[in-house]
């Protein structure tokens, strides 16, 4: 039960954006309501003050007073309808989403062990959420909607947010800044808090496009209206861009050729994505990748990246590279593993066990060999999960173990590693069993080398 104890804090580490996204949506709705109130209450207050002043001065008759009051009542009723519609169409649905998500997270607090069925169900739902997140980030919106609908998790995923992201990114891909600038206007205060320069970059790009089309007068007017307010922090960029009038779009002058470069639009797409992710505390990597990183980091060994030690049964070794295909079908000797996870990495290993920064010493040869990350084969580039694993550190084992390829059992002081004259290593138990069945002769499964049991030598790990 102790090993199955639920790590609630660890689970919540990845759940901040899960709650933050609807919270940020509701904040925007609240700000919109606040702007509507301020916009309509200003004229109301002015009309009320004017009515009081005229009444005190004795210049207000009953008919004018009733007309002024009716006008104020009409304005208040209009504001009430506007706020009510906003709440029904946006505020209430967002609150319902927040409530659903908080209830989903609250389920964890009542679960004590990962072995409980409730946790399995919760974890399945979490995986579905992560799959939807991954599909949305990769532009597979229809697939995401289908998964959300089939799994009944529409309120637990951010399809609307990523739809907006895709809409704006598509506009930028069409060389239009209009949608992105509208988004910046809606989130001006939040962007200012995180010191984002996205709006300036968009304004600068629009100025560059005017210069590209040689519309000089419009470009100058645009710069005065939208770029000059940024001169306190971006004076050098503005000064640099102003010289575009002297250079045509076909210029070969490096600094101005880069300003005219169409790849700037791709940079704007990335800048926008980083800004909106930052505002909603969404990680740049898919949540599915972050979860996989944690598991792969505990399995990743140098053996996973060696052409002769790859194994398709290991997640880190995943991928059908040419090196892996060349190694398929061959046998191996000993595998280095952690105490809790025993994946065989030694496919087609010509010598003794490949260990993570460990040395294998043999009294027979008097030599010691160490395998380190520097010895990786350049021909064996990982694919699939192995590609993800490239970005995580190697697993750190306080107590490393080696496993016999024949029996699959850990070799230790009671089951010593035994080395053939050719250097291949198997467990004492496997060798004794083989010798008992073959008149004291043992055969290396990989090379077919045969010798007597007495010719085997004990291997000591240092």
Q: Could you say which overall geometry the principal axes of the C-alpha atoms support?
A: elongated
Tally of strands: 11
Unreliable sequence segments: 320-382
Structural class: mainly alpha
Task: Summarize the biggest pleated sheet.
Answer: 3 strands, antiparallel
CA radius of gyration is 34 Å
> How many DSSP helices?
17
Oligomer: single chain
Order of helices and strands: HHHHHHHHHHHHHHHEEEHEEEEHEEEE
Distance between the amino and carboxyl termini: 35 Å
Strand coverage percent: 5-15%
- In round numbers, the mean pLDDT is 79
The domain count comes to 3
Please estimate the helix content. 40-55%
InterPro entries: CRA_dom, CTLH/CRA, CTLH_C, Fyv10_fam, ZF_RING_GID
Keywords: Cytoplasm, Metal-binding, Zinc, Zinc-finger
Pfam family, one: CTLH
Family: Belongs to the FYV10 family.
Summarize the SSE layout with pairings.
Blueprint: H1 8-12, H2 16-57, H3 62-109, H4 117-137, H5 141-151, H6 159-173, H7 178-186, H8 188-193, H9 198-212, H10 216-227, H11 231-242, H12 254-260, H13 264-279, H14 287-299, H15 322-327, E1 334-337, E2 359-361, E3 368-370, H16 385-389, E4 401-404, E5 410-411, E6 417-419, E7 425-427, H17 428-437, E8 441-443, E9 450-452, E10 457-458, E11 460-461
Antiparallel strand pairs: 1-4, 2-3, 2-11, 4-5, 6-7, 6-10, 8-9
Subcellular location: Cytoplasm
Zinc finger (RING-Gid-type): 404-447
GO cellular component, one term: nucleus
List keywords for this structure.
462 residues; mainly alpha; 3-stranded antiparallel β-sheet; 17 helices
């Amino acid at each position: 039960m102790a090993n199955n104890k639920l790590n609630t804090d660890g689970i919540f580490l990845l759940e901040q954006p899960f709650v933050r996204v609807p919270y940020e949506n509701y904040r925007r709705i609240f700000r919109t309501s606040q702007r509507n109130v301020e916009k309509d209450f200003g004229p109301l207050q002015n009309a009320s003050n004017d009515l009081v002043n005229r009444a005190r001065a004795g210049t207000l008759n009953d008919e004018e007073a009733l007309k002024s009051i009716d006008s104020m009542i009409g304005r208040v009723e209009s504001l009430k309808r506007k706020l009510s519609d906003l709440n029904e169409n946006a505020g209430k649905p967002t609150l319902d989403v927040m409530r659903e998500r908080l209830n989903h997270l609250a389920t964890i607090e009542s679960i004590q062990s990962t072995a409980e069925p409730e946790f399995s169900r919760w974890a399945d739902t979490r995986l579905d959420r992560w799959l939807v997140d991954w599909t949305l980030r990769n532009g597979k919106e229809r697939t995401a909607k289908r998964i959300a609908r089939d799994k009944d998790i529409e309120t637990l995923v951010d399809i609307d947010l990523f739809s907006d992201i895709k809409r704006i990114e598509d506009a930028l891909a069409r060389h239009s800044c209009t949608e992105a600038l509208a988004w910046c206007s809606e989130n001006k205060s939040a962007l200012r808090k995180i010191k984002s320069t996205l709006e300036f970059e968009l304004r600068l790009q629009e100025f560059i496009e005017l210069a590209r089309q040689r519309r000089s007068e419009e470009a100058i007017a645009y710069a005065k209206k939208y770029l000059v307010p940024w001169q306190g922090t971006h004076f050098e960029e503005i000064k640099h861009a102003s010289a575009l009038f002297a250079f045509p779009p076909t210029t070969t002058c490096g600094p101005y050729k880069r300003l005219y470069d169409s790849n700037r639009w791709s940079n704007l797409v990335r800048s926008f994505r980083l800004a909106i992710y930052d505002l909603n505390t969404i990680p740049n990597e898919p949540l599915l990748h972050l979860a996989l990183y944690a598991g792969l980091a505990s399995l990743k060994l140098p053996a996973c990246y060696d052409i002769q030690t790859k194994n398709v049964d290991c997640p880190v070794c995943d991928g059908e590279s040419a090196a892996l295909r060349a190694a398929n079908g061959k046998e191996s000797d000993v595998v280095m593993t952690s105490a809790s996870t025993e994946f065989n990495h030694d496919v087609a290993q010509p010598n003794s066990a490949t260990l993570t920064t460990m040395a294998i010493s043999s009294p027979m040869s008097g030599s010691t060999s160490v395998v380190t990350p520097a010895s990786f084969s350049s021909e064996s580039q990982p694919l699939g999960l192995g590609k993800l694993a490239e970005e995580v550190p190697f697993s750190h084992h306080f107590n490393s173990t080696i496993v016999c390829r024949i029996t699959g059992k850990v070799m230790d002081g009671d089951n010593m590693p035994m080395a053939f004259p050719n250097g291949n290593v198997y467990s004492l138990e496997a060798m004794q069993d083989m010798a008992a069945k073959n008149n004291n002769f043992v055969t290396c499964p990989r090379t077919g080398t045969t010798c007597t049991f007495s010719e085997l030598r004990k291997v000591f790990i240092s």
